[in-house]
Amino acid sequence: MRAAAAFILALTLVLPLVSDVRAAGSAAESDQIIQINDQQPAGSELIELSKGQTIEFCISSNPTTGYTWQISGVDEALLELLRNDYQVQGPGIGAGGVRTVVYRAKADGECTIQMIHCRSWQCEQTTVGSYKARITIR
Q: pTM for this one?
């Protein structure tokens, strides 16, 4: 029950940040930061980047449940993967966390990134959340 209350509290804190975008003040920060969790309505977002800019997706996740975010549609000629890591956010076994995926825009063009929250061995039957973004690089 405590885990459920913590999850709801985390969602309360994260949902207002869903489309938080900030300008980079240093090379260590991403140019755009997108917060994603499985409670968001499925839809599509439009994102514009300039060559050299970075975009960071912060994805709420708990792989101990068997559910992970599957990422597809990334055109590697346009977007370079800089980072893909997971950090546990709570104490104890089974605590949830955040997967951080960072891309850098390499070339002009358009692609669609799709993220599906599901069990990897049966995605079609177990999808519990999704996120889609159309990325334009100029």
A: 0.72
